[in-house]
Amino acid sequence: MASRPNKIRPVRRPILNKETSEFEPCWDILKSALTDIHNKNASRLSFENLYRASYKIVLRKKGQLLYDRVKEFEEEWFRNHVLPPIAGLVSSNLVSVALLQRPGLSAHERRETGERFLRGIRDTWEDHNMSMNMVADILMYLERSYVSEARQPSIFAATIGLFRDHILRNNLDGVSEQLDQPLVMFDLINAVILDLINMERDGDIIDRNLLRQITSMLEALYETDEEPENAKLYLTVFEPRFLAASQSFYRDECDKLLREGSASAWLRHTQRRLQEEHNRCETSLSILTTDKIAQVVEQELIVAKLNDFLAMEGTGMKSMVDNDRHEDLSILYQLVSRVDKTKHALKHILQTRVMELGLEIEQTLKSTDFSAPVAGAEVEDVGEAGEKTKAQPLSAAAQQTAAAIKWVDDVLQLKDKFDNLSRVCFNQDLVLQSAVTKSFSDFINMFHRCSEFVSLFIDDSLKRGLKGKSDEDVEAMLQKAIVLLRYLADRDMFERYYQKHLARRLLHNKSEIHTEKELVRRMKAELGNHFTTKFEGMFKDMELSKDLSENYRDHVRSLGDADIKNIDLGLHVLTTNNWPPEVMGRSANQEDGGRAECTFPPAIKRLQESFFKYYLKDRSGRVLTWVASAGTADIKCVFPKVPGKESGPLSKERRYELNVSTYGMIVLELFNGVAEGESLSFEEIQAKTNIPAHDLIRTLGSLSIPPKSRVLAKEPLSKNVKPTDRFSFNAQFASKTIKIKAPVISSASKVEDNEERKQTERKNDQTRAHVVDAAIVRIMKQRKELTHTQLTTEVIGQLAGRFKPEISMIKKRIEDLLVREYLERIEGGTAAYRYLA
Amino acid sequence: MSDSEYITLVSSDGFEFVVLREAALVSPTIKGMLRSQFSEAQTGRCTFPEISAIVLEQVVEYFHYWYRNRDKEDVPDMDIPVELCLELLMAANYFNLDAKPAVRDAV
């Protein structure tokens, strides 16, 4: 447009013409219109006409005059027509009910009175509000052009404010005198609203719509005509009073709930109240208040007496947890999360409860009598004869094993319980989960046999059940094992036990190798490489041995040596470091006699030599030690027909396949050379075989005591083997099955007795000492100089994954290293060390 | 109150313009006219005794111009006959088209 050659012509027809644009005629039009508007006769007025009238006044610069005239007119109208009916609304009844809180009226009457009053206020307000809106509309041009320039409150604000100044702030003289404090209409309105709200809280039905209309009125009115956004009367006057009244209401209610003494009722009540207040803000008050009133309720009903409710006897949190009252706990969690993001109270109680229940498990364990066999806790001692001997008390070792399994089961159950709580009630809350986990870890590690028990549990699960179980069951079991493992602090202890148990399982082929490998793989993922190297070494040994045995078999076949053909050799070549010393025949009990080499029968000796030769062909320089204590042998034996028996199994020649330990084989081989009817004494057998005494007792026991495998007759017949007993070939032996297994006691994993346990701990401490030494040297080599405290912290940090070293031990190791001159003290105030290369 | 989609604007010389209600509401003056209880709101017919058809036609055209382009960017200028400039300026003032919407209108 700007680029066009513009030529402005004179106005052809002036918009303003003199006669109709004088102030007074225009004002007369407007004045009569205002009266009509108040009398609700607006529909016969033309808006355009009125608008044009005010428009012209403003154009003629008479805006201020118009503004003043309108204000004057409205004030007068207000005084003459609006106020008188309002005064009639304030009845003495209303005042005494709402402000003086005098009793005497029923709730129903009180409500009626209050609502009637509010309705009157509302009607007046709505009339006034509508009229003022219309007035402001026709004076639109005045508002826009004049008022904004003159920096006055808009005509609308000025006229709507009349309501505030002349009604809400109107003194209630009579009442003020009675109460001895100045009171205005607004106080009365507030009091009535609060009274109504309290009635609704007590269960009455009130006119919510009416409340909403009154609060909208308060939201539309401001403290001053300037109408700053934060000075709505609703926010400045009503809301604080509402919150204060609610606070005292809920404080009383909280006390009442406390007296009633049911945490469960309290939870539900609080939840309902929160919802109610939320709804109230949406339907009756203003959403501006939603958060604030929620805070009040939270503060008064939840925070104020939280601990009292949680500690309630019989219904408090303890009983909720114990009785799995999931609904209660869910509500509790929701409520507490509202007020405390750290959920300190919940955390504390959960932790205490886990500790208590955990220690209870240990207590139960001590007081439970495991002499009665526990279902599913069948152990090797009972073995094949399980059905028959089930009623018999278990041996001490078996009882211990049962105890271990019960302990683990209980812990897992407890864990399941709390996992379930976390899932169902606590929304998998991380804070609570980690707190519970910590408590679990704490009580498990307070139980000094935890490492052993966990390993035993795994041992038991892998040996029994897994055959024929579905993948899910196996998976669940593996999962459980890892879960428990995660809790253990002294992992080196666990490693030691696990190694022992794993060795037994592998050598006696008690478990499925792929499950074992899977478990170890998971341990590796969980605890790192160094933890599982030995286990993996063991698996590798097993595999190599299998190949080796087969190759050797081929080798023998190709040789065609008649002597050896009769004996099939299967063997495991084990790397000393990977396997536990007990298995390797280096157990502490044998220390006295060095490595006791038992005497193998000549046939076996030849076999050994043949294999050794074969083995060294490819691997010269290696040393093989024969460990008889860990092996088994299948023997075919022939029991000749017993003379004199014409019928029954004894009348025929009987062939059996006997599965015995290597020692058992050696002993039986011995009896091949004994004439019929003769016997050997315990000492004779020991002298000839050189089997360690306690192993021999066990071996002979398995061959001469259980009825199913009694191939040797013992003199005298008793349940125990004594060094004075004599043994002979039991020609009367008969069995229903062809394959017979002589129970091998050593393959049962059992709990160590106190003596063994001390041994294990001592050994473990020795190992730890080395590990700590290594850690210190490693750290010092890198850092060169460190203070004592720094060094201690670093050592603990490095070893955290394996075990928790005691401070005293670290100190001792440092001193030892000082003596051995790996380190030296730095002279000075604080204790510090320097690494000596 | 008439809720028709269209309203009628009448000029001083008796011409009637039927306008989309929503388009006309761009003018706070017309908005005020139509929201209250006054006769215009009842009938949907607004008479402007001091505005000629020539000017009112341009005003109506602006209403629709505004309505068509209300959500668009890069709107082309509207052509305005030069000789009507002054009268249109006054009309715009009368229709409050130059003012920012008041707080009360926004509600």
How many structural domains are formed by the residues of chain B? 1
- Low-pLDDT segments, ≥5 res of chain A: 372-393, 586-595
- Class by alpha and beta content of chain B: alpha+beta
What is the molecular shape of chain B?
globular
According to DSSP, the number of beta strands of chain B is: 3
Q: Enumerate the strands of the largest sheet of chain B in spatial order, edge to edge or round the barrel.
A: 2-1-3
Report the span from N to C terminus of chain A: 92 Å
CATH architecture of the largest domain in chain A: Up-down Bundle
N-to-C SSE string of chain B, H for helix and E for strand: EEHHHEHHH
In the sheet with the most strands of chain A, the strands line up as 1-2-6
Poorly predicted runs of 5 or more residues of chain B: 101-107
CATH architecture term of chain B: 2-Layer Sandwich
The helicity of chain B comes to 40-55%
Helix content of chain A: 55-70%
The biggest beta sheet of chain A reads:
3 strands, mixed
Rounded average pLDDT of chain B: 80
Roughly what fraction of the amino acids of chain B lie in strands? 5-15%
The secondary structure category of chain A is mainly alpha
Calculate Rg of chain A over CA atoms: 48 Å
Helices of chain B, by number, come to 6
GO biological process, one term (chain B): ubiquitin-dependent protein catabolic process
Protein name (chain B): Elongin-C
Main location (chain B): nucleus
GO cellular component, one term (chain B): nucleus
List the helices and strands and how they pair.
The complex is a heterodimer of chains A (837) and B (107).
Chain A: H1 23-38, H2 47-59, H3 63-89, H4 92-98, H5 107-138, H6 140-150, H7 155-168, H8 173-179, H9 185-201, H10 208-220, H11 233-260, H12 263-283, H13 290-303, H14 306-310, H15 317-322, H16 326-339, H17 344-367, H18 386-389, H19 396-424, H20 430-446, H21 450-463, H22 471-487, H23 491-507, H24 513-527, H25 529-559, H26 562-565, H27 602-618, E1 632-639, E2 654-661, H28 662-672, E3 679-681, H29 682-689, H30 693-704, E4 712-715, E5 726-729, E6 739-741, H31 754-783, E7 785-787, H32 788-799, H33 807-819, E8 823-825, E9 832-835
Parallel strand pairs in A: 2-6
Antiparallel strand pairs in A: 1-2, 3-5, 4-5, 7-9, 8-9
Helix pairs in contact in A: 1-2, 2-6, 3-7, 4-5, 5-7, 5-9, 5-10, 10-11, 11-13, 12-13, 12-16, 13-16, 17-19, 17-20, 19-20, 19-21, 21-22, 21-23, 22-24, 23-25, 24-25, 31-32, 31-33
Chain B: E1 6-10, E2 16-20, H1 21-24, H2 28-35, H3 39-43, E3 45-47, H4 53-68, H5 85-94, H6 103-106
Parallel strand pairs in B: 1-3
Antiparallel strand pairs in B: 1-2
